[in-house]
Fold this sequence. Notes:
Elements: H1 4-24, H2 29-44, H3 48-66, H4 71-86, H5 90-106, H6 114-128, H7 132-150, H8 158-170, H9 174-192, H10 199-212, H11 216-234, H12 239-254, H13 258-276, H14 281-296, H15 300-307, H16 316-320
Helix pairs in contact: 1-2, 2-3, 3-4, 4-5, 5-6, 6-7, 6-8, 7-8, 8-9, 8-10, 9-10, 10-11, 11-12, 12-13, 13-14, 14-15
Amino acid sequence: xxxxxxxxxxxxxxxxxxxxxxxxxxxxxxxxxxxxxxxxxxxxxxxxxxxxxxxxxxxxxxxxxxxxxxxxxxxxxxxxxxxxxxxxxxxxxxxxxxxxxxxxxxxxxxxxxxxxxxxxxxxxxxxxxxxxxxxxxxxxxxxxxxxxxxxxxxxxxxxxxxxxxxxxxxxxxxxxxxxxxxxxxxxxxxxxxxxxxxxxxxxxxxxxxxxxxxxxxxxxxxxxxxxxxxxxxxxxxxxxxxxxxxxxxxxxxxxxxxxxxxxxxxxxxxxxxxxxxxxxxxxxxxxxxxxxxxxxxxxxxxxxxxxxxxxxxxxxxxxxxxxxx
Length: 325
């Protein structure tokens, strides 16, 4: 992320190069690499439509140059799948992840450090859909490979630990969920530093578990810190920031604080509409919950306004219109 300013300066050149590559049908490995790197950069910046275009072009070039079973093709597949997964496009992401996993397991092999990354992302995709039976063995396999090959304190180990914490929490095993989430957070903080952007994942996960346990003050503090880190490193207008906003809003709503919840839902909705589109499933989820908060408070006109994703004036209700008892 420290390289983002430098990447931004070269972005226009990359886009111009993409045009030339397409016009002249340049089948060069360097062209595929440039497009792939630019696509990954745009993904991190939350510019999904531009990222998708470049990543698709990079994948096509890789397949033409190297064949469909080359490990570099798996890297392109994985990057594109992650882009879809983060947008809630699970049906598009799953076959790409499965194909990438199949390639990497065949070459360089099932224990290679690249394999657990795909295992984890595939497990996370299933976890997001509530498919815990499918997710758990993948999380455990990713954890085992990383621990055996990189050590138990390797910072990537924290990702499957947090996934397993989420599965334990969903099963009502809150003590185990908290233990795993705290272990993940400790690894990130110790290995990367307490202000590293990855720490936000641990804070967010532990906040969700604390909320499930009824530890309201602890959950709120964790959500607030996770949100601050996301805003610091990614900015307010980013899908990962919106995820924390959405979940923080749900927590506040459950605490009987509708005005504060609506403010956060509004911010999450604005970001998701702009970056993902008004009909994206994540956008629809946030809009539905915001409508529920407004409806509970008797704001019927505001509910109608929110139903139209392009009527930004209606969103002002979340700032001004909710009365507190």
